């Protein structure tokens, strides 16, 4: 299993489940900042058509191309289903944001051979590792 730093370094396309249009929410600020540092952000939110200048998709299964990482901004109770969907689309890694922990989601990811991070923030990890995808 890769470390959180390796997962971020290897990822170019991040699907963000629960991405928010509200700039006051972490589910908007975090993906927006990752995009500013060069990651392609694919919003997954059934209530919007576009976020961060990218088409939004209602579910992971609706994304028409591979993603490198599924970032989750949903309650822990929803994480199990999101991880199942991530496994179904062949995502190599799942990341549950700060405050989101699920033993069942972890088990599903591990059994499927999917790298798994929980209760950690993408932008904190990005900054700590001084990572950027910009040329």
Question: Can you walk through the features of this model?
Answer:
The chain is α/β, with parallel strands linked by helices. It has one domain: 3-Layer(aba) Sandwich (Rossmann fold). 36% of the residues lie in helices and 19% in strands. It is built from five helices and seven strands, in the order αβαββββαβαβα. A five-stranded parallel β-sheet has the order 2-1-5-6-7, with helices on both faces. Helix 2 links the parallel strand 1 and strand 2. Helix 3 packs parallel to helix 4. The chain is globular and about 35 Å long. The N and C termini lie far apart (27 Å). The model has no long low-confidence stretch (mean pLDDT 96).
Topology:
Layout: H1 4-10, E1 13-17, H2 26-36, E2 40-44, E3 50-51, E4 54-55, E5 69-72, H3 76-88, E6 93-96, H4 103-112, E7 115-117, H5 122-129
């Amino acid at each position: 299993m890769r470390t959180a730093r390796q997962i971020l370094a290897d990822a170019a396309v991040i699907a963000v489940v629960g991405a928010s249009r509200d700039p006051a929410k972490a589910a908007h600020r975090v993906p927006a900042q990752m995009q500013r540092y060069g990651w392609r952000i694919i919003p997954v939110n059934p209530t919007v058509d576009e976020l961060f200048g990218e088409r939004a998709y209602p579910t992971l299964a609706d994304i028409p191309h591979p993603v490198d990482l599924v970032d989750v901004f949903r309650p822990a109770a929803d994480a199990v289903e999101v991880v199942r969907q991530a496994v179904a689309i062949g995502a190599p890694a799942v990341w549950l944001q700060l405050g989101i922990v699920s033993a069942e989601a972890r088990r599903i990811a591990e059994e499927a051979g999917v790298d798994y991070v929980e209760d950690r923030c993408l932008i904190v990890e990005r900054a700590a590792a001084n990572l950027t995808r910009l040329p």
